[in-house]
């Protein structure tokens, strides 16, 4: 079997080594006589998996003690509602709109209170991140929200707004675990796991403890961080398989990769190969301002829509799949998350050169 290079924005590739471990343990986990797929979430065997996974997330991401870590269903999109429901204590919240997901998060929050746009890059179709000096946060905002890596537009923050007394909340769905994060800069970080960690079906939130306990009584139980975290993410049946897979990927990051500093070096080198190629020719074009380029999602266009389609079709035939860009941007997008091997990017660039030789 030849595994393809899957450039999907999510769900996305998982490390082959992790998939093989999951395969080897599928029928029987340890000497439990059963699969993780069948296990009670209340069993001692699963409890050990859960506690080790949570501890590993804390170690890998270097999460300080004053933060809780929770595992939730409903994806990152449900977090868009949970954040205002739990943290919009003054009735006001400020959002930086730097792409599609931050826009969706702001719209969801506006259902629950007074949302102001602290800065936006919509004027140039989200090809940059506003300068932090152009960000205006109201002093009585309950929090300020950003999307740290814009999956669709291929941009990322290099510095984040720090406003005295106003907690920063970040959606890190598409770049979590790709590089070290200074968690202490944030009140809450949340992410869907299907881009860089595990299969689809779960979100993780890291919440500073002082933000808990302020939700209104009317907030649904399943959307109340305080209740769910008090029950250690076991208020109801969690996504056991996703938790187990998260644990395997954390082990891989620690033992095979050697931590997030190393992961960052690998990711930076991979992205450099692709961006250097894009910068050195004029058939393909990357629209993003250089200093805000994402290391995870690389967008590019060819001279025409027809050529874009031909490129994606030919690429797929050659084992490079899911390169079609999002409809909001057009063209192509290569998502090169942690699990995309460097070889996949090298071979993609070789394919692009050959495509230009034939069609350019
Ligand atoms: C994919 C993605 C989402 C949506 O995640 P779901 O788990 O599908 O709800 C939200 N934010 C960002 C930045 C994403 O990349």
Structure summary:
The chain is of the alpha/beta class and 360 residues long. The chain has helices at residues 16-24, 44-61, 75-87, 100-109, 225-230, 240-257, 260-279, 305-317, 342-359; strands at residues 5-6, 67-72, 92-97, 114-120, 144-147, 149-150, 155-156, 168-171, 188-192, 203-208, 297-300, 320-321, 332-335.
Radius of gyration: 21 Å
The mean pLDDT is 97
| Helix coverage percent | 25-40%
Q: State the total count of DSSP E strands.
A: 13
- Unreliable residue runs: none
Largest sheet: 7 strands, mixed
What is the straight-line distance between the termini? 33 Å
**Beta-strand residue percentage:** 15-25%
Order of helices and strands: EHHEHEHEEEEEEEHHHEHEEH
Class per helix and strand makeup: alpha/beta
Overall shape: globular
Count of runs of 4 or more consecutive helical residues = 9
Strand arrangement, major sheet: 2-10-9-8-5-3-4
Small-molecule binders: pyridoxal-5'-phosphate
Written account of the structure:
β6 (149-150) and β7 (155-156) form a beta hairpin. The relative contact order is 0.16. The protein has nine helices and 13 strands. The protein is 35% helix and 15% strand. With 360 residues, it is of the alpha/beta class. The model has no long low-confidence stretch (mean pLDDT 97). It has a seven-stranded mixed beta sheet with strand order 2-10-9-8-5-3-4, with helices on both faces. A two-stranded parallel sheet has the order 1-12. A two-stranded antiparallel sheet has the order 6-7. The longest helix is centred in the C-terminal third of the chain and has 20 residues, at 260-279. Pyridoxal-5'-phosphate binds next to α3.
